[in-house]
Write a structure and sequence with these properties.
The protein is an alpha/beta fold. About 45% of the residues lie in helices and about 15% in strands. The radius of gyration is 17 Å and the shape is globular.
């Protein structure tokens, strides 16, 4: 039920961190993967590495803030694979600037990548999937969008909270067309952002996690595979929490 053989996936922000782990997880489950990222060198390097492992993938340098460029990249993936069955909106900026110090430019940039980019991804993929009456959209949200967090800025939190609302709106719209739309809300996952924290801050954060450890990127990837697979066929409009028990509901 978790196999993705014969399916094609499109992952934004695939150049590193969670995006790379998600792309690898989808490939291991059998999917062909379009690797999209503003960092062209990173996705080309990842594509080369995955192809060396026998995975079928393509690299697509693109900026999710640019709807026309996003659509061209998605169309290129459809042309290459014949379809896109799974859309993963993962691209994000994760600044931790104090709310007193966030400038208008930084606020707008975070919203443009995290929220506008997610909206474009849902709509571009949604139009394709609606016509096919089949597909899965997975949005990478965050626990920061559900409750206050000292690990991220308020603009990041606001963008992720809005992404959860966006997920539910698209889920309702797409359900009659056989397309599921869900969100994953990770927290305290081993990533470049977590690695950049100083050790005292990391220890303090870990102490707030009931399971007593940080999450792994592969665990986020496994959740994406679940939602993209036949095992997750009856799940839509949901938010899957991956936070070690930091936020229970």
């Amino acid at each position: 039920m978790f196999a993705l053989s014969g399916r094609a996936a499109f992952v934004t922000g695939a150049g590193r961190g969670l995006g790379e782990a998600i792309a690898r997880g989808l490939g291991e489950a059998g999917a062909r993967v379009a690797l999209a990222d503003i960092d062209g060198a990173a996705v080309h390097a990842l594509a080369h590495a995955l192809q060396a492992e026998g995975r079928e993938c393509i690299a697509l340098p693109l900026d999710v803030r640019d709807e026309a460029a996003f659509a061209r990249g998605f169309d290129a993936a459809v042309q290459h694979f014949g379809t896109v069955d799974v859309m993963v909106n993962n691209a994000a900026l994760t600044p931790s600037t104090s709310l007193w110090d966030i400038g208008a430019g930084e606020w707008d940039e975070v919203m443009a990548v995290n929220l506008r980019g997610g909206f474009f991804g849902c709509r571009i993929a949604g139009r394709h999937m609606r016509e096919r009456r089949s597909g899965r959209i997975v949005n990478l949200a965050s626990m920061a969008g559900q409750q206050p967090s000292t690990a991220s800025g308020v603009h990041y939190a606001a963008s992720k909270a809005a992404l959860l609302a966006l997920t539910r709106a698209f889920a309702q719209e797409m359900a009659p067309h056989g397309v599921t739309v869900n969100a994953i809300a990770p927290a305290a996952i081993h990533s470049p952002v977590l690695d950049a924290m100083d050790e005292p801050r990391r220890r303090a954060l870990q102490a707030t996690i009931p399971l007593g450890r940080f999450g792994e990127a592969r665990e986020v990837a496994a959740a994406v595979v679940y939602l993209a697979s036949d095992a997750g066929a009856f799940v839509t409009g949901a938010t899957l929490d991956l936070n070690g028990g930091r936020f229970m509901r």
